[in-house]
Design brief:
This protein starts with 10 loop residues before the first strand and ends with a helix. The protein has about 160 residues and is an alpha+beta fold. Strands 2-3-4-1-5-8-7-6 form an 8-stranded mixed beta sheet. Helix content is about 30%, strand content about 30%. The protein has 5 helices and 8 strands, in the order βαββββαβαββαα. The radius of gyration is 17 Å and the shape is globular.
């Protein structure tokens, strides 16, 4: 018999992925110049990149242990964030509210995180993110350059 999900909550979209990278400058170059993302902001040890109208779809953190840091989902509204929080709490997953300062740095409203028990992967849930006024344009469209393979090998 399938277990009831309890109070359902509604997703808007997959919001962003956060990665820890060994070399922030090199990673920015890779995601901008090869993948075509737009750099939308930087703080000490962090970079925000986008491929949509959202402020960010990828967050890069400078760090010693490179890898996937977290995956974030944007929910349809603040009410849905409340529902999701209660859902995970009722399942014993101990959701953790993200501090206001970090939410501000992420340009997001109320945000919480839970860890998936089997893998330890962190998932983030929020409903509000700053939207950029200027539409996204791939940096690949702007540059229209062909780079030799030796250039890309330096980036990866």
């Amino acid at each position: 018999m399938e277990e009831s999900m309890g109070e359902p909550f509604r997703y808007r979209e997959l919001g962003y992925a956060a990665l820890t990278v060994a070399d922030l400058e090199r990673s920015i170059s890779f995601y901008r110049d090869l993948i075509g993302l737009e750099l939308t902001g930087r703080t000490d040890g962090m970079a925000f990149m986008r491929c949509s109208s959202d402020h960010h779809n990828l967050v890069l953190y400078q760090g010693a242990d490179p890898g996937l840091r977290r995956v974030a989902f944007e929910l349809e509204s603040r009410l849905e964030v409340d529902k999701a929080y209660r859902h995970f709490e009722s399942r014993g997953l101990q959701p953790v509210e993200v501090e206001c300062e970090e939410c501000k740095a992420l340009n997001q409203g109320r945000t919480f995180r839970v860890k998936e028990p089997a893998s330890g992967l962190t998932f983030e849930f929020y409903a509000e993110v700053i939207q950029m006024i200027r539409p996204f344009t791939s940096s690949l469209d702007e540059n229209r350059k062909t780079w030799p393979c030796s250039y890309w090998r330096k980036l990866v």
